[in-house]
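Please fill in the sequence for the structure shown.

STRUCTURE ENCODING:
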């Protein structure tokens, strides 16, 4: 009985002492001596598996309420016993794993401080009496910092809305940086990071201004809209790099149904003149443009191609809609974990914009970069290329025989009669005329039928056209030898030949002229380099309105062929 009474009195004493602990700062007769040791190292990671972020984040509003009710103050910070705080949070329905992880993360961020307080505990003197003495023990406690209360007042401990962050890469890469950025940003409660890709984008497709850019932009557009459909209540944000910044800017202009919470650009190649005012109403926050003062690629993209800008090197300068933040970085240096934690995570976590110390001490860009930024180098290169194409084309055309026809008025061509025995005789007007050899086979032997009276009665025999196309590199003339018409002049021996001579045709030229009473079997000689050369071949020139004789050269030998127009 005596022991039971002792236990009851002891429990009542403990309850009474805990009430005095909560009232220590008001009563002035504190039972708890605040000797907290600040700036202790954060505890090790909890043994429990990491619970869902939403469970962790729900702990903070109730923890803030508990700490706000605590009347014990250490160095100006409200302090509550750790065990009592955990018991109170569990009584409000929170899991122990979520409580321990919430406290661990808050301590790691510097929002809470682990400390200790001294608390006088009643200890019975012996088992035969209800008398007890007070013993001073240290117990773990939590102190809330000013930063903790700032976040609380700003409403950051309210249930955080789900946010989906899309990561968009650039060219010549499969985006190996995306997993690291995903891991860091997903430490933010209720935040999901989705890397999206549009395949390997090569340099030519990036440079060429037509057709090649449409495919990756359309691919990104589909992925963005499918993400929105899968997370209709979430806030949608994007981190884009290099060509990804250009693609997102085009998607925002062309698809007014797409709305974003935050947009972060790095290595941007969006033109400085881009109309952000057209899309700013669909962005909850100003665009954040992280540019690198060592990044030359945006400048090269601007001056060597079309549609791009150098804002990844110089910024936009659009304070109302875009916030520029400079760093001592090259094109892809942004993808290190320190940078992501120091600059991007605070922006997505609480909207805190961390200034870059490099902006004030960054040197001005060199004159060479300034020149590249304004020089239309792409047009200069195109001009040089087209000039070279035209020059080489003209040189190539000069090596190909021209088919230009130079018409000549109809002339009377009365052929002289030249018997076989005058071959080789020089005249005052022509060099030696080469006629068919004496033993040269007749047209009949060559299989060519002679002209008939019907042929000679045709209009195309009386007045016909001859085109000579010279595909050699020297001027030429042709001589046509044939047997005369016996019915017109029976006195001419059957073995005699009649010769006609064409006008001179320049190298690579085609020349047309008229002949009368012309056609049928002809022996052709070519006058070139000051002398006549026989082809030793009969040609059937037919009785047609127009035929073309083509003279060619191969290995120093000159040849002739006849072409007829299709009727």
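FILLED IN BY: designer on duty
SEQUENCE:
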């Amino acid at each position: 009985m005596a022991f039971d009474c002792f236990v009851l009195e002891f429990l009542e004493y403990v309850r009474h002492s805990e009430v005095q602990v909560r009232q220590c700062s008001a009563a002035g007769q504190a039972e708890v001596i605040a000797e907290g040791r600040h700036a202790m190292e954060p505890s090790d990671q909890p043994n429990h598996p990491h619970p869902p972020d939403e469970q962790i984040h729900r702990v903070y509003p109730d923890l803030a309420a508990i700490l706000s009710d605590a009347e014990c103050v250490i160095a100006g910070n409200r302090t509550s016993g750790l065990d009592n705080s955990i018991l109170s949070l569990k009584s409000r329905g929170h899991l122990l794993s979520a409580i321990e992880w919430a406290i661990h993360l808050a301590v790691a961020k510097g929002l809470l401080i682990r400390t200790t307080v001294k608390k006088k505990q009643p200890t019975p003197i012996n088992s035969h009496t209800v008398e007890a003495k007070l013993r001073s023990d240290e117990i773990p406690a939590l102190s809330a910092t000013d930063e903790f209360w700032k976040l609380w007042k700003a409403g950051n401990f309210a249930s955080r809305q789900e946010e989906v962050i899309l990561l968009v890469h650039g060219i010549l890469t499969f985006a190996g940086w995306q997993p690291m950025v995903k891991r860091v940003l997903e430490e933010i409660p209720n935040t999901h990071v989705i890397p999206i890709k549009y395949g390997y984008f090569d340099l030519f497709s990036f440079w060429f201004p037509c057709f090649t850019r449409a495919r990756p932009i359309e691919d990104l557009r589909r992925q963005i809209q499918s993400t929105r459909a899968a997370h209709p209540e979430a806030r949608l944000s994007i981190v884009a790099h290099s060509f990804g910044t250009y693609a997102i800017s085009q998607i925002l202009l062309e698809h007014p149904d797409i709305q974003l919470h935050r947009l972060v650009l790095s290595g941007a190649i969006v033109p400085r003149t881009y109309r952000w005012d057209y899309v700013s109403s669909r962005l909850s926050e100003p665009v954040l443009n992280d540019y690198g003062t060592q990044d030359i690629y945006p400048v090269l993209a601007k001056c060597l191609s079309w549609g791009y800008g150098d804002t990844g090197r110089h910024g936009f300068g659009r304070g109302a809609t875009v916030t520029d933040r400079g760093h001592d970085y090259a094109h892809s240096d942004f993808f290190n974990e320190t940078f992501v934690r120091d600059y991007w995570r605070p922006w997505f976590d609480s909207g805190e914009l961390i200034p870059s110390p490099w902006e004030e001490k960054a040197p001005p860009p060199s004159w060479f970069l300034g020149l590249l930024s304004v020089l239309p180098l792409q047009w200069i290169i195109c001009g040089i290329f087209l000039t070279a194409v035209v020059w080489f084309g003209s040189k190539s055309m000069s090596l190909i025989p021209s088919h230009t026809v130079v018409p000549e008025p109809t002339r009377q061509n009365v052929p002289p009669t030249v018997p076989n025995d005058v071959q080789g005789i020089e005249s005052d007007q022509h060099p030696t005329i080469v006629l068919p050899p004496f033993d040269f086979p007749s047209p009949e032997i060559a299989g060519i039928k002679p002209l008939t009276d019907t042929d000679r009665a045709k209009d195309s025999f009386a007045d016909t056209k001859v085109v000579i196309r010279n595909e050699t590199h020297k001027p030429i003339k042709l001589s046509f030898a044939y047997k005369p018409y016996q019915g017109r002049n029976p006195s001419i021996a059957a073995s005699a030949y009649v010769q006609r001579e064409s006008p001179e045709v320049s190298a690579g030229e085609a020349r047309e002229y008229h002949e009368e009473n012309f056609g049928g079997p002809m022996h052709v000689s070519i006058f070139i380099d000051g002398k006549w050369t026989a082809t030793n071949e009969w040609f059937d020139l037919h009785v047609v309105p127009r035929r073309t004789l083509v003279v060619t050269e191969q290995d120093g030998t000159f040849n002739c062929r006849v072409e007829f127009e299709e009727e």
